[in-house]
């Protein structure tokens, strides 16, 4: 009975891997289909972020830009939270966490599977990556750790 179990387990593992690879290929094909539509929007966003020199400035520029230009399905009222008198690293951390929830791809799935839905889904994926990076940098700044990503960006700016 042990041989039967081992054989069955191998077959099940192979079937799971085949399904996983198939799903990955489909995801990559979908991503490639919409990447040309999303790339210009991401370039504008990354350029806006790159002009800021501190972690706090980058985080707030990111938040202001995405909520103004690419609102999520459910829009929060963040105007008061983004005013200069409320800017602190702790507040930025909280706002980034809220934005990650607002833009998480699983929360931005549309019922229609049209081109607009696929483009929005990919944009949300990319925005979520940027938000996660900003959150990591903010948490490092709160803990007074040097941000490797910010140092690389500042080095690139100085080389230009």
Main attributes?
mainly alpha, 5 helices, 160 residues, single chain
Overall geometry: elongated
Task: Please state the CA-atom Rg, rounded to the nearest Å.
Answer: 20 Å
Strand content: under 5%
Low-confidence stretches: none
Mean pLDDT: 83
Q: What's the quaternary structure here?
A: single chain
| Separate helix tally | 5
Structural class per helix/strand content?
Answer: mainly alpha
Main sheet characteristics:
none
The span between the termini is 68 Å
- Tally the beta strands: 0
Q: Can you give the helix content as a percent range?
A: over 70%
Write the H/E string, N to C.
Answer: HHHHH
Tell me what you see in this structure.
There is one protein chain. This protein has five helices and no strands. It is mainly α and 160 residues long. Helix 2 packs antiparallel against helix 4. The chain is elongated, with a radius of gyration of 20 Å. It starts with a helix and ends with a helix.
List the helices and strands and how they pair.
Blueprint: H1 2-50, H2 55-69, H3 89-103, H4 115-142, H5 148-159
Helix pairs in contact: 1-2, 1-4, 2-3, 2-4, 3-4
Short summary of the structure?
With 160 residues, the chain is mainly alpha-helical. It has helices spanning 2-50, 55-69, 89-103, 115-142, 148-159.
